[in-house]
Amino acid sequence: MDINQVLKDASKEIGLANSQADIQNLKVSYLGKKGKITELLKSLKDLSLEEKKTIGAQINSLRDSVDSLIKGKLLKIKKDEINSKLLNESIDISFPPPSSIDAKVHPISKTFDEVISIFGSMGYAVAEGPDIETDFYNFSALNIPEDHPAREMQDTFYIEDKDEENKPFVLRTHTSPVQIRTMLSQEPPIKIIAPGRTYRCDSDATHSPMFHQVEGLFISENANMSDLKGTLIEFCKQFFEVQDLKVRFRPSYFPFTEPSAEMDIAYHVKNNSLHIGEGDKWLEILGCGMVNPVVLENCKIDNSIYQGFAFGMGLDRITMLKHGLTDIRSFFNANLNWINQNGFGLGDY
Ligand code: PHE
Question: Which ligand 1 atom minimizes the distance to the CA of 314?
């Protein structure tokens, strides 16, 4: 057999191979136990000593060449495979998702988006704070001292670990601690909302141990109660999509605001469904008031120059009202059928 011819054939065939399986077959047919080159080596035994030396060396170098051609081609094939895989896996992020996409946005998430967008259009920035709070931020800085009856207004979840003041951490019972965190870290004027999760030890059709609130805080030299009312009325009109919205503010009490109020919106029931905006029945939707000067002082804000208003609203409640949902627990059951029925699609944005 012509050694040069074998090399030529091998390089041609290796050149044409385009899969790992092709290469494996070629390896067997040239270098395997019964492969062409192995056969050549076997045939050496019939040759003279002289010939064995020269031809043996030629066959060895043929074997090395074919071996390295095979290895080189195998490497190339593997690289090509990876590259074509990467090419197929590439994601065009500018490409719109298919219209048949099934995922739905949870009603609470939709409310978060709407609340942020409405207050955002009024110039409010979004602030955040941790769900696990210290006694200072959740209570004492908000003028709720220990043993104050106001602590019993909220059934608190305590955590065994103690903070720096040796007081147990709490799951925040409201978003109001974000007021304190913001006032301690920013100079007035301040204009923020803080949407987020809150926790109280309570559970029935209208209370969930984990629920959602949005806090609002506006501190300036002349923020006043009528700005507060105007802001909240405008928010409700936009959120509930009702232009003629009947509302009322009732005097109330919160340790961190003075004076304090609760806002109710009017409603009536017709054909078994709830209509917001008109009627002789009232629904309480939020607490609010002028920031207590003591709280400003706790946050090192000069209360002879600055004043402010604050409000806190239950997001689960306004979501239920807007969409006619009656059981708060349905929000947190993680029931796919429920989400498919009550969630929002791309068309709702
Ligand atoms: N934090 C109060 C609550 O959870 C609501 C509130 C916030 C009231 C801000 C007044 C001002 O009930």
Answer: 4
